[in-house]
UniProtKB/TrEMBL annotation:
Organism of derivation: Stakelama tenebrarum
Official protein name in the record: ATP synthase protein I
Family, per entry: Belongs to the bacterial AtpI family.
UniProt lineage: Bacteria, Pseudomonadati, Pseudomonadota, Alphaproteobacteria, Sphingomonadales
Keyword line: Hydrogen ion transport, Ion transport, Membrane, Transmembrane, Transmembrane helix, Transport
InterPro entries cross-referenced by the UniProt entry: Atp1_alphaprobac (IPR016989), ATPase_put (IPR032820)
């Protein structure tokens, strides 16, 4: 029965509101560019990528270097080099996973 009763027709979207929304969006975009906030996301991602790369390279090189030095002193070549290299890689991946699961601010 409620379907047969006359009701209000939905209003058509006003062109002025659409124009206002578009101008607001444009003004916010220009303000973000002017204040430098538009590049903040790109800079943050660049820094995060560099940090991940540094963790990976640092873990591998650090583990290999320490293992090589200990192998030279203890005469256990190449076992400590291999063990510490793999420990460095595991540590680097653990740090990368920890970095990637942090909430961005």
């Amino acid at each position: 029965m409620a379907e047969d009763e006359p009701g209000l027709d939905p209003l058509k979207e006003d062109a002025r509101l659409t124009s206002l929304d578009e101008r607001l969006r444009q003004a916010k975009s220009e303000e973000a560019i002017r204040s430098g906030k538009a590049r903040a996301d790109g800079d943050r991602n660049y820094r995060l990528g560099n940090r991940v790369l540094a963790e990976l390279i640092g873990g591998m090189v650090g583990g290999a270097l320490i293992g090589w030095v200990l192998d030279r002193f203890l005469g256990t070549s190449p076992w400590l080099l291999l063990v510490l290299l793999f420990l460095g890689i595991a540590s680097a991946f653990r740090n990368i996973i920890r970095i990637s699961t942090q909430r961005s601010e």
